[in-house]
Design goal:
Chain lengths: 302, 365
C-alpha cells in the first residue's frame, strides 16, 4: 500500500517559493500560534504539569505513615502492577472495555447507516434523539439504571414475565457493561454516522451491480470505507470505558473491582500514591497507543 | 409513425431488453410513464432527453437499482423486473464512475469476477484482457484518485465489460469529460461496442452525442417515450414539436392542417405539407436551417414555397453562416455553407426564405 510520492510539480513549487511568499507563510503560522495560545496554555497548565507530577509520584516511595517521600526513586510501584490482584483488575478492565466497544459497534453501525441514508430532515431529528440523553446528568442516568436493573425493576419484571424466574442484574459485571454501553453509545454513533454519510452511495450500487450480495457489499465496500468512523468511535468508547469509575461504582459489585475504582482506592483508602500514580500512567500509555494506532490507520484516510 | 416504426425491426428475434408498459412512480411523481421499448441484441441504443425526463430512472430499472411500479421488464426473454442487481446479466458504467476508492485499478476491475467466484487464474487473465481492451496497461496499481477523468472512465468500462454482461448500461458516460476528450471517447466507445458485440444502452442529454454514437435513439420527455428510431428517422421525421426542437436546430412554423397534403401557415397562406394528423389539427412545419434556402424575393424558383422577411443578423461560424430572418409572425434561421460567391444579402434587406416539399416535415404542435 504505497502512497503516491509528492508530485514533481509540487516539489518544484516548494523549491521555487519566492522570499515574499515565505514571509507571508511565516506570518500566517505566527497568527495561528497566537490564536491557539490560550488552548496551549490551558493544556500545559492543567494537563501537562499535573501529568508530570503524577509521573514523579509514580517513582516515589510510600512511607510508613501513608505519606509519600519524594526521595529514593525506584520502580517499586511499577513492579507492584505485576502482582496477581492488580493484573486481574487490569485484564478484567481491558476485557470489559473491549466488550463494551464491540457491543457499541454492533448496535451503532446499523443505526448509523440507517440514519445516514435518510432524508436530511429525518437525520437531524434522529441526531437530536441520540443527543437527548446528554441533557440529563450522567450520575442521574446511572442511578436510573440502578432502578431498571435492580430488585423489582423493569428487567426483573421482564424475566419473571417470560418465565425465567426472578433475575437480578444489578451489581454484576453485566450491569456494568450495560451501563457502559448505554453511556458510550452516542460516542460510537456520531463518528460512524459522519463517516458513513460521506460515502458515495453509488459505490454501494456499483458493488451490487457487480454481483456482490448485500453482505458482501457491506464487508468489501461499506465497512472498509467507514473504517475511519469505526476506529474513531472505538477509541472514543474504549478509552473512557477502560478507566471508567462512576458506572462500575454505581452498577457493579464489590467483587469486580475495575481499574478506575482501584486507582481511587490506592490514592484515598490505601494511601499508596506511587501505585495509584504508576497505574494511572500505564493506563495513559495504553490510551496513547490506541490513539497512535488510530492516526496511523484510520486517521490517514480522514 | 410513433415508436412502433423503430421497434418493428427487432420483433423477429428475442430482444436484449424489453420493457412493456413500464411505469415508475416516486411518491406522487411519475418518473417513467407507461413506456414500451424493445432493444435488439448487439444494438447501441441511446435514451435521450432533458434532465428529469426519466431516462436515468429507466436505465436504473434495467440495472435493478430501481424496481418498476408497474409493467414488465425482460432481459433476453427472462422476466427480470424484480431481480436484485447482482442477479441480472447486466453491468453499469455509472455517471461518476463509482470506482472503489480503497482499491487499485486492478482490484476494481476484478471485483465483479471475484464476487461471481470465478477461479483466480481466470480472473487474472480476464482482468488483464479488459485492462488492455481499454488501453490502461501500466496503471493497474493506481488508485482512482490518481487517475484522470478519461482514465477513470476507462476503468469503469473495464470493470463492467470484464464480466461479459449481456447488456452494458452507461449513465451519461461522457458527461464528466471535457469537450475534446468527449469527442475522442465517442469514437472509442463506438469502436469498443463493435469489438465486443455487446448491447449498449446509454443515457445522455446531449443530442449530438446520441446522433453520433447510437444505432437507435429513444427520445424521452417528462417520463414519456416520444419516439424511437434511427438517428436519421428522428432527425428527418420528428413526431412532434418537442422532438424536432430537441434534436438539432430547427425552425418551427405554426400551422393548421387543411387536408392531408396541405397546411395553412399562421399568416394564412396555404402550402403543400403531408400529414396524417387530421383536418383542423394544430401542427408545426419543421424546416431545418440547413435545408432552408434564401433568395431575393423576386428570384424564388417555381417549385419552392417561400416566405418573405427582413434579414436581421448574420452569424459567422467559419465553415457556415447563419442568417436570422424576421417575419412579423415568425423568426427563421437559414444556414448556408461558407462558399465563395452566391447570394449574400445585407442586414436589413428583404429576403425570401424558401424550401422544397421534401425539405420540410409536418409535426404535431
Amino acid at each position: 500500500m504505497t502512497r503516491a510520492a509528492v508530485r514533481p510539480e509540487e516539489q518544484e513549487a516548494a523549491a521555487a517559493t519566492p522570499e515574499y511568499e515565505k514571509a507571508a507563510n511565516r506570518a500566517a503560522s505566527r497568527r495561528g500560534l497566537l490564536l491557539s495560545l490560550p488552548a496551549y496554555a490551558y493544556l500545559v497548565l492543567f494537563f501537562a504539569v499535573p501529568l508530570g507530577i503524577v509521573m514523579i509520584y509514580s517513582f516515589a516511595t510510600r512511607n510508613r505513615f501513608g505519606g509519600t517521600d519524594l526521595s529514593g526513586w525506584n520502580l517499586e510501584a511499577y513492579r507492584k502492577l505485576g502482582e496477581p490482584i492488580v493484573r486481574d483488575i487490569l485484564f478484567r478492565s481491558l476485557w470489559l472495555a473491549i466488550l463494551t466497544t464491540l457491543i457499541c459497534l454492533a448496535v451503532s453501525y446499523p443505526f448509523a447507516y440507517f440514519m445516514a441514508t435518510r432524508t436530511p430532515l429525518l437525520r437531524n431529528v434522529m441526531l437530536v434523539f441520540v443527543m437527548i440523553p446528554f441533557w440529563t446528568n450522567f450520575l442521574v442516568r446511572n442511578y436510573a439504571w440502578r432502578v431498571l436493573l435492580g430488585n423489582d425493576g423493569l428487567f426483573t419484571n421482564i424475566t419473571e414475565a417470560i418465565g425465567l424466574g426472578e433475575r437480578e442484574l444489578l451489581f454484576t459485571t453485566s450491569a456494568v457493561v450495560i451501563g457502559l454501553v448505554y453511556g458510550s453509545l452516542p460516542f460510537m454513533v456520531l463518528p460512524l454516522y459522519a463517516s458513513i454519510e460521506r460515502i458515495d452511495l453509488s459505490l454501494v450500487e456499483a458493488s451490487r451491480d457487480l454481483y456482490a450480495s448485500g453482505f458482501q457489499t457491506f464487508r468489501r465496500i461499506l465497512f472498509p470505507l467507514s473504517m475511519p468512523g469505526v476506529i474513531a468511535g472505538s477509541i472514543l468508547v474504549f478509552v473512557p470505558s477502560l478507566g471508567a469509575y462512576v458506572t462500575p461504582e454505581i452498577l457493579g459489585g464489590a467483587k469486580t473491582t475495575l481499574l478506575g475504582s482501584y486507582i481511587v482506592t490506592q490514592f484515598l483508602t490505601a494511601r499508596n500514591w506511587p501505585v495509584g500514580a504508576s497505574l494511572s500512567f500505564v493506563l495513559m500509555a495504553v490510551m496513547l497507543v490506541a490513539t497512535v494506532v488510530y492516526f496511523r490507520t484510520g486517521g490517514r484516510n480522514l | 409513425m410513433m415508436g412502433d416504426g423503430g421497434n418493428d425491426q427487432v420483433s423477429d428475434q428475442v430482444a436484449a431488453v424489453e420493457l412493456t408498459a413500464i411505469t415508475k412512480r416516486f411518491g406522487s411523481v411519475v418518473a417513467v410513464d407507461n413506456v414500451d421499448l424493445k432493444i435488439a441484441d448487439g444494438e447501441f441504443f441511446a435514451l435521450l432527453g432533458p434532465s428529469g425526463c426519466g431516462k436515468t430512472t429507466t436505465l436504473r430499472m434495467i440495472a435493478g437499482l430501481e424496481l418498476p411500479s408497474e409493467g414488465s421488464l425482460k432481459i433476453f426473454g427472462d422476466e427480470a423486473g424484480t431481480l436484485p442487481p447482482n442477479k441480472r446479466p447486466v453491468n453499469t458504467v455509472f455517471q461518476d464512475y463509482a470506482l472503489f476508492p480503497h482499491m487499485t485499478v486492478e482490484v476494481n476491475v476484478a471485483f465483479g469476477l471475484k464476487m461471481q467466484r470465478v477461479p483466480k487464474v481466470e480472473i487474472a487473465d480476464r482482468v488483464g484482457e479488459a485492462i488492455s481492451l481499454v488501453r490502461l496497461e501500466g496503471l493497474e496499481q493506481r488508485r482512482s484518485q490518481q487517475l484522470s477523468g478519461g482514465q477513470r472512465q476507462r476503468v469503469a468500462l473495464a470493470r463492467a465489460l470484464v464480466n461479459r454482461p449481456k447488456v452494458l448500461l452507461l449513465d451519461e458516460p461522457l458527461g464528466a469529460l471535457d469537450l475534446k476528450l468527449r469527442q475522442e471517447m465517442q469514437g472509442e466507445l463506438k469502436a469498443l461496442q463493435r469489438e465486443v458485440g455487446i448491447t449498449f444502452v446509454f443515457v445522455t442529454h446531449d443530442q449530438e452525442e446520441a446522433l453520433t454514437m447510437a444505432d437507435r435513439i429513444g427520445v424521452l420527455n417528462e417520463g414519456e417515450l416520444l419516439q424511437v428510431g434511427t438517428p436519421a428517422e428522428i432527425y428527418e421525421h420528428p413526431v412532434n414539436r418537442f422532438v424536432a426542437n430537441f434534436i438539432g436546430q430547427t425552425n418551427l412554423l405554426d400551422a393548421t392542417v387543411v387536408s392531408n397534403d396541405t397546411v395553412c401557415l399562421a399568416n394564412g397562406v396555404h402550402i403543400p405539407g403531408k400529414s396524417d394528423l387530421g383536418v383542423g389539427s394544430r401542427v408545426a412545419v419543421c424546416l431545418r436551417p440547413e435545408r432552408a434556402e434564401m433568395q431575393r424575393p423576386d428570384e424564388v424558383p417555381a417549385d419552392h414555397q417561400s416566405v418573405v422577411g427582413r434579414l436581421e443578423s448574420v452569424t459567422y461560424l467559419g465553415n457556415a453562416l447563419v442568417y436570422t430572418v424576421v417575419l412579423d409572425w415568425a423568426r427563421l434561421e437559414v444556414r448556408r455553407e461558407n462558399q465563395p460567391g452566391g447570394y449574400r444579402p445585407y442586414v436589413g434587406e428583404e429576403v425570401a426564405v424558401s424550401w422544397t416539399l421534401d425539405a420540410i416535415s409536418v409535426v404535431r404542435a
